[in-house]
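Researcher: Please predict.
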Amino acid sequence: MTEVRPTAAASASLWERDEEVAAVTRAVDSLCADRSSSGGLLVFRGEAGLGKTALLAESRRIAEARGCTVWSARGGETLRSVPFNVVRQLLQPALVSMLPEEAREYLGDWYDIAGPALGIADPGDRQADPQGVCDGLVAAVRRLSRREWPLVLLIDDAHWADQETLHWLAALADRLDEMSVLVVVTRRPGEVSGASARFLDAVAAAADGPVTTLSALTPDAAAGLTRATLGEHVDAAFCREVWAVTAGNPYDTVELLAKVQDSDLEPVEARAGELRELNRSARGGGLVARLEGLGIDATRFAWAAAILGTGISVDLVAKLATLKPDDARRCAELLRTARILTAPGPATGRTADGALEFVHPLIATAVYNSIPDALRTAMHGIAARIVTDEGHGAAAAARHLLEVHPDDDEELVGQLREAAREHLAVGAPDAARRCLERALEEPPRPDVRAQVLCELGFATLLITPGRTIGHLRAALGMPGLDGDDRVNAVVRLSQALVHNDELEEAVRTVEAEMARLDPGPARIRLEAVRLMWEGIHADEVASPGRSERLAELARTCTGRDNSERALLILRGFDALMHGENAEEVVELCDRTLVNGRLASGLGWTGTEWGIELLLMLANAYAYTDRLDRAENLFNDAVRAYEIAGWTGGHLALAHAYVGVAHRRRGRLRDAEQSLREALPLAERVGRGLPLYWTVICNLVDTLLARGHVDEAWDVAERYGFAPPYPSTIVLPDPRTVRGRLLLAVGRVKDGVNELEAAEKAAAARGHHNPVLVPWAADLARALATEDPARAARLAVDVRRQAERFGTDTAIGEALRCAAALETGQRAVRLAGQAVTYLEASPCQYEHAAARIEYGIAARSVADLRRGLDLAVSCGADGLAARARAELESGAGPR
C-alpha cells in the first residue's frame, strides 16, 4: 500500500489498492503490446466486503480504456449446482450475438462438443465426455480470443462457481501461454472443498506470481474515505469509530457512510456512538429488518429474487412472488432505492432490459437466509414449475428441484431423472449424480428404484468407479432390473471393477450372474465379458481351461451377432498371445468384420462392449503383420473420439495405439509424436492405470528403437516406468522393455534379472509369442558371453516359437538373434536369411537393423548403405550412426 487516497477515477472501495491496480495495469499493457503476446492470470483473494468486486470493475475500466474486449461473470452461492453457469455467463453472450453459421464456423469441430455446455447447441443423445467438453470450452476461448483480441475475462466470486466451470478454468489457466487472453479472478479464502478446491488450487498455482490477498483498510484509509464521503470537517474521533465499527471492511465502510448520509447523522465525536446501530442495519438481521420495513410486497419480491439467483427480471419475480405487474415494478424501485437491488451496469458487463441483481453478494445471502425454511422450499418448487413452463427444460429447473423436501412425488423423480440425462448429455456427470441421488431420497417407486440406481451408477462411472460399484450392486440386489437392463448393469459393474483395479472381482461378478441365466444370447454375452476380463489379466496364474473353452466356443461361431463376434475376437487374441499360427489368428479376426468394417454396436464409442475388445482386435492385426487393417482401426478410433469429444482415457489409448502402429511400421518419429500426444491425456486420467502404462511402455520402447537411450531412461525415471507392474496386460510386455532399457544403460545384471522375471511371468500365462513378449531374444544376446550355452538354447527356442507363429517379422527377428550369437560364415548366412524375411515384412525398422547387421557381417558396403537409408527413413538415429561408423571405418566387399 503506497497511498492513503486512491486515484481520482477509482471508486471508494479502491482505497489502498494501488499495488493491485498497478498489477492489473501491467497485465493489460502486456496483453495489448502484441497479438502474439502470451496470456496472463491474476488471482485476488479476500474476505467478503474487502473490495474484490470493485477491483474487477476497475480492471474493466482499465482494459476498456486500452481498447480491450471485456467479458465478465460471477459465481453465486445458490447457483453452485448449475453446471457451466459461470462459463456460460462469460462466453454465451458473444456466441449468441453471432449468426448460428458464424458460431459454428468459429468453434469448428468443437461446436457440437462445447456448444451444448454453452447453451448454444442442442445436446446429442449420448453421454458427453466431461474432459472433451472442458477441452472444447478451452478451444472456444482460444478461437474467440483471435477474433476479439485483446480479450480480458473477469470472474468474480470464483469460490461460488460451479464445479464444471472451475474444471474449465483450471484447464484454461494451464494453457494461457497458447492464447492472448488476460484472466482476472477473485475469490474468498476457504469456502470450497473436494474437486472444486483442487481446481481453484490449480488456478492459483498457474497465476502470474503469488496470489494477492486483500487486506482491510488501515485507520488512516478509513479516515480518508470517511472525509471524502462526508466532508473534510469530520472529526478524528468519528473517523476512528467508523474504522472500529467496520473493522476496516471497505464494503461495510461504504454502506455505513451511506447510512450516515441518509440519516443526516452529524459526523462528530458526540454522535459516533450511533454508528454501531447504523452498521447493524446494513447486513444480517439489521438488513432483514430494513427490508421488512419496506413492506410485505417488497419483502416477497426480494425473496423471489434471491430464490432465482440469476436471470432476475421484474416479470419473472412477479410470477414467483404472485405480484401484479404494477406492484412488482413498484417493489423493484423501492429495493433499488434501498440499495438492495440494482440494475447491472456497464461495469459488470451484464446489461439486459429489465435485468436486476443484488447490490452485493452479502445482501443476496442475507435475504436468501431470511426466508422461512418452509416457504423457501415451497418457492423453489414454484420456481421449478415456472422455469419448466417457460420452456427451459428439466436441467434448468433442477437446482430448484434439489431444494424441495422429499414427498414421495413420482413426477419429481421423473423430472430429476430427465435433468440427469440432460446434464450427462452436456458433460456434467457430477450434476447428474446430484439429481439422481436426490431422486432416491424422494423416494422412487420400488420398481423404479433399481433403474434410478443403475442410472446413478452409469453417471458416476466417469467420476468415481468406486461409487458406481456400490450403486450397481445395490440395483442388482433388488427387483426392477430384468432382461437386457440387468445384463447391461452387470457388464457396467464389471467395467467399474476393472477400472478400480479389482479385476478378479469383476470376473467373479460376471460368473455369478451367468449362473442365474439359462443358455441363450445373454449368457453368451456374459461369458464373452468374463473371458475378456480374464484375457487382459496379467496375473501369474492362467485361468484353467480358458483357452480350451474359448477354442470350443469359437468353433461354433459364425459371427452372426456381436456376442459371437466378441468370442471370435477373444479367441483370436488368445491365440495371438499364445503364439499360435498367425494366419489362423487373422482368419478368426476377419470373421468379426462386416464388409471389412466394425459391425454395428461394436463401434469405438459404443457402450455395450467397451474399448478393450476392439483393442484386442486391432492389436491382433498389428502383431500379425496386417498393419493396414490395424492402422485403419486405430485411426478410426481417434476420429471417433475426437468427433464425440472424448478427450480422456479413450483418446489417450487411441493415440497410444496409433503410435504402436507407427512403431510396428518403422515410422519411429511419428510413433514418438503420437505417444507424446497421448502422454498428457494419460497423466490427466491418472498415473499407474493400465492406459498410462501402455503410453509409457511404448514411448520407452520407441525411444530405444530410435537410439535415444538417455531420453528413454529420463522418461522411465520421470514417469515411474518400473515395478510393480499393472494387473492388466500391456503390449509390448513392460518387463521386457524395462529389461532392454536396463541393458541399454549398462545395468546388465539388473537387465538380465528383469528379463528373467519376464520369462517367469510369460511361462505362467502361456504367452509364447516372441513378437509380443520378446524377452528371450534380448536375454540370449545379454548372455552371449557369460553363458553361451543358455543363450544358444534361448535362440533355438525363439526360432521354434517364431516359426510356429509364422510371420515374416517373427522369423526374421529370430534369425537376427541367432546370427548375433554366431561368427564367420554361419553368422553371415543367418543374417542374410533374416534380411530376406524382414524385407518381406511391413516392419521397416527391423529390416533396417537386419540389413545393417548383414552388411557388417558380410562386409557389404551396398547393404550398409541401404541399411543406412532405411534407418534414416525410420528415424532410427542409433542404427544410422552405427552404419555410418562402419562405412567410415572402411568396410568393403568380402
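Model: Confidence is low (pLDDT under 50) at residues 1-10.
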